[in-house]
Amino acid sequence: MADNTLAHRAQNVTVTEKLNLPPTAAPANHGKTVAAWFTTYAVIIAFTVAGLGVAFAQVWLFWTGIGLIALSLIVARLLVSAGYGQGGAKTRASQASHGGH
User: Fold this and answer.
1) What's the CA gap between 94 and 87, in Å, rounded?
2) pLDDT value at position 32?
3) How far is CA 39 from CA 10, 44, 80, in A?
4) Which pLDDT tens digit goes with each residue over 75-94?
5) Burial code of 23-44, b = ≥16 C-beta within 10 A, e = fewer?
6) Cα gap 71→88, rounded to integer Å
7) Which one of 19, 26, 58, 100 is separated from 88 by 20 to 30 angstroms, measured CA to CA?
């Protein structure tokens, strides 16, 4: 009789797993795009402003930081839609002019 225990099934996998490969090669810029850099720095600055508002018990400064977070995410989305994000037209053109990086 076949061993049908959980340990046996875990060690002797019989189902072939389907490979889920991407349709094309990944971009060579490693995510270092204008939109990514802007988003990183803008959100760090905005969180710092909000954190200072908490540290100094200034409600207006906290909400200013929260507003800056929302604004920076909106601007980042606009940069991506303008072609400065991963796979965007401006990013591809910049890669082509700099030899792929």
Assistant:
1) 11
2) 84
3) 43, 8, 10
4) 999 999 999 888 888 888 88
5) eeeebebeeebbbbebbeebee
6) 21
7) 19
Distance CA 22, CA 35 (A): 23
Query: Which residue in 79, 53, 82 sits closest to 65, CA to CA?
Result: 53
Longest dimension (CA), the chain: 73
Name the DSSP letter for residue 84.
Answer: I
Domain ranges in the chain are 31-85
> Tokens 């018990």 belong to which residue?
57
**Any idea what the Cα angle at residue 75 is, between residues 71 and 76, rounded to 5°?**
115
